[in-house]
Every structure is written in C-alpha cells, then in structure tokens.
Amino acid sequence: MPAVIKDNVLVYKGCNLFRQRLLLSVLSGRAIKIEDIRSNHDDPGLREYEVNLIRLIDKITNGTRVELGETGTSMYFQPGILVGGQVTHSCCTQRGIGYYLEVLLAVGPFCKEPLNAVLQGVTHHDLDVSVDKVKLAALPVLLKFILVDDGLELKVVRRGAPPLGGGEIVFRCPVRRHLRPLQWTKWGLVKRIRGVVYALRVSPTFANRVVESAKGVMLNFLPDVYINTDQCRGPNAGKSPGFGVSLVAETNEKTFYCAEAKSEEVGSGEISLPEEIGKQCAMKLADEIYRGGAVDSSFQWLVALWMALGQKDVSECVVGPLSDYTISFLQHLKEFFGVMFKLEVLRSELEESDEEEENTIEANKVKMTCVGIGYVNISKRTL
Asked: For position 270, what pLDDT does the model report?
C-alpha cells in the first residue's frame, strides 16, 4: 500500500518491505510509522530478525529514536545521523547475514566514518543472498559508483549454515561525499565462470561431487570453468552441517551474474544430493545469464538506489526483467526522495528481426533512466 503522509511522517500499514522502508528512512532522514504489523497473525508484531535489524541500524547511527506499541504491532522510527565506524553485530539466525549486509552496503558510502563491520550468524540462507553472492556480484557494482576501491572489502572469516549459524564476515566500506552518475548500457558476453563450493561438517567428497555436477552442465557452454572447494574444518565450519555452491559468470564488459544453491537445513527431513545441488546452481546461473542486463537481478534495487542518489546528472542502466522487489523499491524511492525513473522495455534483436520466432535467445531488457538528486554526504569531512 502507498504511504499516507501525516505531519511529515510517512505512515505505512503491514510488515511487507520492512527493510526497504527502514533503509530509505535512514538515508532520507524522514520519520516513518508502520501500523498493523501482523495484527491478524497468531503471533502478532515484529519478528526477532526485524528487531535485530533495528539494533544494527541503531549501532551505525547516532540519535535514532524507536517507539514500539504495547502489542508490537505498531512502530515509530525517527532516523539519526549515519556514523559508521567499527561495529560488531550478532545477526539473528532466522535470516542470513545477507539480509543485514545489504543494508550496510547501501548506506556504507554515506557514513561519517569508514564502515568496519563484523557480522556473525548464518552466511548462507534460503531466504537471503549469501555473503559470497554479495562479494562476487554486488561489490563490483558499488565500484562503478565510487571508482576507487581503497578500503572496500568483504572477507569471509568463517562460514555458518542454518539453523545455528556460527559464521562470521568482515565488511569494510569507504565513504564518499557524493556518487558519480552512471552510464551502463553494455554487458557483453560471458568469458569465464568461477565458483566456490563449501562443505561444513560433512564429508569432503560432497564438495567434489557438487563441483563435478556443476561443471558437467557449464562445460556445455564454454571451456573456461573453474570451481574452488572450501573444506571448512573445526571452528571454521560453523555450528551446523551443510554444503552449497556459488557460481559467478564474468563478461568481457565486467558484468557479473551470480547463482547459488545449498543443501536443505538439517532437521528439515529433506535429503539433498550433491549432484542435484550442483546441477540446480548451474541451471540457475544459465537462467540469470538469459535474463541478462548490466547487473545481477538480485541487485537491481541497489543500482536504482545509487543512481537516484547520484549527482544531478542523467544516469542510465540496462537491466534484465525487473524483479518484484525492485518494482516495490522504485515506488518507495518516489515516496521518500521524489525520484521517478523512466523505464523503457528494449525488445531483443531476434524478436525485431522475426516476429514469428517464439524461442528468443535472450529476455527483454529494461532501460532505467533517472536524474540524480545530488545527495551529498554532509558527514564526510572534506580534506
């Protein structure tokens, strides 16, 4: 539902897109109120992982004020100033570290001090992007906006599978006074595929079987395929058993598409075969390459955010079919910042040359264009 504005406060109903609203509230400085949070559920109110996210935001800001209703079904959020600096946070194991890491990635360049965050929890979760995917596909996107990678780093110290986690990552992000406008309309052809397979508290042969299965699919398309194995032992293997794979396809235009698959959570009653996991991930990567565009579909919303906050100039980026999450994010950008995107559907060349052709070799692309608002990081000290 669209926001209702009361006394310059954006009022929302329901728990959907909770993270988007908090994130944009922090960046815009606008207070929000969310009502009817799961008010009809048997267990009403905010979930533990949502409260945990508020705590993380409180750690990287100064002056944030949060008021929760008695039943927990309503919340008032007044954001403070982004400070950043050294942060250590234990993430709720109901969600992956990626749920929290994406927020830090979005706000990192606008903090007062360079962000140095240590996050602990589940590194690979079914509901969220893994830390590997953020490292392989999202950090190169941020580099397009900040140009210099001094201090931009994501290090996986320990991996942790659900339900108990036990993983740890270190994320460092430099600060910038403003982001540069972006012209990104070419994505090129895939030239190589790389990947990593991890095995936590399971037989090392599982990792090798995943590698063979994934390579068996990918070698049908191109010869340059190399997949590492990460055989974690002892404390580095987290607290729960599990295994999985992340594959990344790199194009000659420095675009990165990423896909991942993991074993079922221990105790779920489901059995995961390594061969199935490897094949599943390879097919997901093929689908992501088919969608195409200059950015992985999981991070379309991040590109839209940084384009909107860029200097007062035209930015444009061609992406694959928009995800539902991105569409909602574009609506929120309009409500918080007044930024509207021009969206053009670019039909594939094959479709234009042969209208009767049913099996096109690529998906339709969307060209996103906007004028940045000239967002300035007023906290950053000028040299």
From this structure: 80
Closest CA to 197 of 177, 157, 226: 226
Q: How long, in residues, is the chain?
A: 383
**Matching residue, tokens 């709720």:** 92
Between 234 and 280, whose confidence is greater? 280
Nearest one of 60, 53, 64 to 107, comparing CA atoms = 60
pLDDT tens column, 180-221: 999 999 999 999 999 999 999 999 899 999 999 999 999 999
Q: Is the pTM of this model over 0.85?
A: yes
Between CA 146 and CA 148 the distance in angstroms is: 6
- Pairing between β-strand 75-78 and β-strand 4-6 as defined by DSSP bridges: unpaired
Could you tell me what percent of the chain has a pLDDT over 70?
A: 95
Answer whether residue 149 shows pLDDT above 80. no
* Surface-to-core class of residue 193, CB atoms within 10 Å of its CB (0-12 exposed, 13-18 middle, 19+ buried): buried
- Give, for 248, the enclosing helix (H) or strand (E): strand 242-251
* Cα 15 to Cα 18: distance, rounded to the nearest angstrom: 6
Structure-token match 């397009």, residue found? 144
280 pLDDT above the threshold of 80: yes
Half-sphere exposure of 265 (CA within 13 A, CB side): 16
Q: How confident is the model at residue 356 (pLDDT cuts 50, 70, 90)?
A: very low
- pLDDT tens across 122-131, in order? 999 999 999 9
The pLDDT score that the predictor gives to residue 237 is: 87
Mark out the alpha helices in the chain (DSSP H runs): 18-28, 48-60, 97-107, 131-133, 139-146, 205-218, 274-291, 300-308, 324-337, 349-353
Tally Cβ neighbours within 10 Å of residue 363.
15
Phi-psi region of 7 (alpha: psi -120 to 50; beta: other; left: phi over 0): left
C-beta neighbour count of 345 within 10 angstroms: 10
* Cα–Cα–Cα angle for 267, 273, 278, rounded to 5 degrees: 120
Tokens of 373: 């608002």
Return the C-alpha torsion angle 112, 114, 116, 119, nearest 10.
60
Q: Strands 183-184 and 314-319: what pairing?
A: parallel
Say which residues have a Cβ less than 8 Å from residue 379's Cβ, sequence separation at least 6.
81, 82, 83, 110, 111, 112, 175
